[in-house]
Amino acid sequence: MNRIKHIELLAPGGGVDAIKAAILAGANAVYCGLEKFSARDRAANVPVDDMHGVVRLAHEHHVRIYVTLNIIILETEIPSLVRLLNKLMHSRIDGIIVQDIGLVHLLRSCYPHFQIHASTQMTTHNDGQIRLLSALSVRRVNLSRELNINEIRRITETGHAHNIETEVFVHGANCISFSGLCYSSSVKYGNSGNRGRCSQPCREEYYETPQHCRFPLNLKDNSAFLNLRELYDAGVDSLKIEGRIKKSNYVYAVVSAWKKQLERLYRGTSLRRDDLELRQVYNRDFSNAFLTGVLDKQFYIDNPKDNSARFLLRASGAVTDKQIKAANRKINDAKKALIEEVKSKVATLSTDKVPVRIDFYGTSGEPLQMTVTTPDNAFSLCTKSALVEAEDGKEAQLTVKMFQQKFRSVKETAYRIESIENQTLQPNLHIAFDEITALKNQLIYKLTGQERIAPVELPDQSTAPRPNTTPQLSVLIQDMRELPDTADTVGSIYFALPNFLRDRWRQFVFLFETHPTFVPWFPAVLIDEDYAAAVSLLHALKPGRIVTNNLGIAYEAHQMNLSWIAGPGMNLANSYALRCLKEQFGCQGAFISNELSRMQIAKVVAASDLPLHYSIFHPITLMTSRQCLFHQVVGCEKSQMDDQCVPYCSKHATIVDMKDSDSLIEKSPGNYHRIFFDRHFLNTNIAGDLPNVFSSFLIDLRNVQTNTETTLTHTELVDLFIRHIQGDATAGAALHKQVYPTTQNQYAAGV
């Protein structure tokens, strides 16, 4: 008889009470953040010193704990990050969830005992990304939420073939942008979603659109509750519930409902065909649109607030005022009862560290011995060497204070020393300190089952000075009409490829063969057939150089021994990310993140033989979305997206928030829907601020209509930018005068 495969039910733990609630409700694993480096900065999170007790409690209930360190890491944060990882080394956590490729490299190099999970912030959606992450020893990937069930099945097969598990978000908030590719909060408010500080501009109120919507970017919550069988058949390994800023009663209710549904699946009984249990706690209504691939207007809800009370009121059938009041009273009473029920259950669990009592004893000529007592165990340990008489004033005495000092690292486990006694130890004795250290390590091993691991020390980050060269100017186009007349004066001409390539890749092979100086520029998102088409393009063309914003294409380029540059879409922010891509995958150059400030960029240490690039003029993409962004704005004649929308649709619209700030929605043929900031980014300061750092500056000449205007032709723009980076002070002033309005707020504020 074949054993039924069990899927992990992974719950959010925004704080200790939520973790307890998840354990009580039947979760198989919980993900939680610490006070730093977490993508949910607003969550309660867990103090690092409390993590040992959390892990102890979870493991006692056969629940795994994954710690989220899923933000981009700044260079200056690396030392404190290493100190944090050193503290976690003996915590027995079951995995670390990460976004930053540099952190993946650091964990793999210095902390190989940690299991690495790729966050959904890594935007994993194609086979090449899976292969690259497998080469970096990643053991699980949380897939992009935008994938449909067939895409999930195929990428899961690839994952399993490369020793990678797949994890899918099945319940909770949907992001309107591909996770990891949203810069809206960063640009508009200085709160980067890639740093755990998203201000959720997509949930904001806007002036009423022509479709009479005031919350045109607000998606319903994700729920795959009724699609459990399909996910099981697709081979998915973990079902992830979103909600690290939700309360413990929410976590308990949602996990309980999912647990019951899973148990029905394992028993072979009929699955529930309704989601009433889930609708009784916070939600914005539910949709499984991404999973089914049915992307229509019903995916949106024109209200960002809790929908549970409204749904339950409608379900009650109340009509008269009296009935409505009675129904509301019943709904509120049920919510309060759930809160109290969960509160009382949570109170029965403790994450306190286990108290340890230690008694030292011994006489001269015998080993130093200790008796250790915990609430459920007692044992004795001793040194290898014997105690000796101490020479007065020359050797340290074995005092309680000294033992407390030498055994203080016990607090870095799930245990705490409650008391130390030495009343039965003969006075005036001495033993070598390394013997006491060995005894302490014996104790920790006996308590935890883990050998003591030496803390990691940072390797030398020094590098040779960068060469004193004048940077070149590069341009990015997506249409031959955007090519400046003086193209021969620029260092590189990058030609942007679209997201949709499956039926067009041969046309682009012809384009690049006809224009051999053009360098292919691959987008950040290439899903399924479009990724396969991009790989076919690479093999047919074998270009001398490419720029890629997608790690899957980077992996394929490396396999083909092609020269490749990491594009700005990779959002690289530290030297470990640069080192990883260069040393592991042959990267020949990299764009530094446009989210970073001057000082943050200056701290990045790069190898002298790795050329660095930076985009100094471009339209700012706030969001990239797979679903249609016009249904709630200007409408569409189609009730839902079809296979003609991405390759052929061309449309523009503007939405205005209540602060009178414009966001520009664009759909160009072959590309996904995008939202742009109302002004172009223009940074003329960086050339003078950071000399000898960059080998190339990029200007984006693609025809994206923002409120930035200029009377200059592309040829005139190129001439001014070349003069500027060559040191002509008048050229920079002319650019700001002739190209207006623009912004460089990110360069000033950073993340």
Please outline the helices and strands.
Layout: E1 8-13, H1 16-25, E2 29-33, H2 51-60, E3 64-69, H3 78-88, E4 95-98, H4 101-110, E5 116-118, H5 127-135, E6 138-142, H6 149-161, E7 165-172, H7 184-189, E8 221-223, H8 228-233, E9 238-241, H9 248-267, E10 286-287, H10 289-292, H11 308-316, H12 321-346, E11 354-362, E12 367-374, E13 377-386, E14 388-389, H13 400-406, E15 415-425, E16 429-430, H14 433-448, E17 472-477, E18 492-496, H15 505-514, E19 518-522, H16 529-541, E20 545-548, H17 551-559, E21 563-566, H18 575-585, E22 590-591, H19 598-602, E23 612-625, H20 645-648, E24 651-656, E25 662-667, E26 673-682, H21 686-689, E27 696-700, E28 709-710, H22 714-725, H23 729-738, E29 739-740, E30 742-743, H24 745-749
Parallel strand pairs: 1-2, 1-9, 2-3, 3-4, 4-5, 5-6, 6-7, 7-9, 8-10, 11-15, 17-18, 17-27, 18-19, 19-20, 20-21, 22-23, 23-27, 26-30
Antiparallel strand pairs: 7-8, 11-12, 12-13, 14-16, 23-26, 24-25, 25-26, 28-29
Helix pairs in contact: 1-9, 1-12, 4-18, 5-17, 9-12, 11-12, 15-16, 16-17, 22-23
Shape: globular
User: What is the CATH superfamily of the largest domain?
Assistant: Aldolase class I
Domains, number:
3
Total DSSP E strands: 30
CATH topology call of the largest domain: TIM Barrel
Indicate the structural class.
alpha/beta
Mean pLDDT: 94
Query: What is the top-level CATH class of the largest domain?
Result: Alpha Beta
Terminal Cα span: 55 Å
The number of helical segments is 24
Strand content: 15-25%
Low-confidence stretches: none
What's the architecture of the largest domain in CATH terms? Answer: Alpha-Beta Barrel
**Rg over C-alpha atoms, rounded to the nearest angstrom:** 29 Å
Q: Main sheet?
A: 12 strands, mixed
Report the helical percentage. Answer: 25-40%
